[in-house]
Amino acid sequence: MRAHISLIAYILFLLPLVAPTQALAVVQSLNGQTGNTQTFQNDSNVAISSSGNVHSLGWLGLLPLSRGGTGANSFTTGSVLFSNGTSISQNNSNLFWNNANNRLGIGTNSPAATLDVSGNARVSSLTSSGDATINTLNVGLGGGAVSTNTAVGTGTLLNANASSSSNTAVGYRALTSVGGSLDSTAVGYYALISSTGSDSNTAVGSSSMRENTIGRYNSAVGTNTLRNNNTGEYNTALGFDALFYNYDGGTNIGIGYRAGIFQADESTPLTSPENSIYIGNYTKGYDNNDSNSIVIGSTATGAGPNTAVIGNSSMTDAYFGSSSANADTHARKVHSGSSSVPGCIVMGDTAGGIGYITLTSGVLTVSSTPPSACQ
Questions:
Q1: What domain range includes position 350?
Q2: How many separate domains does the chain show?
Q3: Whole-angstrom Cα distance, residue 234 to residue 162?
Q4: pLDDT, tens digit, for every residue of 196-239?
Q5: What pTM value is reported for the model?
Q6: 344 lies in a domain?
Q7: N or C: which end of the chain has fewer CB within 10 A?
């Protein structure tokens, strides 16, 4: 009785196999099948493929996201896939991976750097292990990577080393050859470019202190100020071309347009003055022996060492403690000379000559020839 029931159940099980028109799919044994590729498919694109003795379960057509696929049948080389909310998408012109050079492009499909962004970018914080380059502009610490140095511009602080510190360079090739210099500031195109072993210089302006090498403690503000200074120290220049030709002179002051650049002949460069002051447009020294020379006034020309010149040859009056509008208020004293160094007043006369006024034992003497006190 039990064997009869089992036989009936087995016959019922085989009925769908022998009547395929009443079944959803055909079931066939693939064991040992060989020959051409065979595909057994149901109505949901699930297929069992056979090639030789290898049988595989696959999907015919595009595999949708719902079944773990992409929904696309091809992709463009370099595409970085993303979801648009309903399917996987690609936009080569705005998101591109250059696999040959390991570069990512955002807004471009031809990245020229590891990360190339075409367009604006917002960065909340940025950390760089080295100097940054922005449109060929260098921003960072410069050569030597010393934390107290600041470099902004192409070629700035390029040759700085670990012994240089507290330097600031802003502008194309500013402080390029700084070497081991300390405490210098260069702002402007080629400012302090050649300075190699100098300290505590300040150069502000295009080509200011451009030729300086070891000169120290100088301050130059203005285009070409102290441009040719090489070894000179403790100089101060303010104004276009001020002290332009000074080479090794020290402790000088030049204030004004082209102040202190020529000697009295108006063409020979003033290169070696010492302890001298030139204030005013185009003020000139006497010669390279100037020392303790003071020259004040537009186009005024110095008279040599240990002299002071106020005004140019066009001046007609000099007032001490008053003005022409208030001539009755004068300075009380004018000092000239001392007990050991007799004073001398030199005056031109109406006949075109020169008079020399001296004081001896309380007596004024006027002479047309210079006495010893006037020499």
A1: 340-375
A2: 1
A3: 26
A4: 888 999 999 999 999 999 999 999 999 999 999 999 999 999 99
A5: 0.67
A6: yes
A7: N
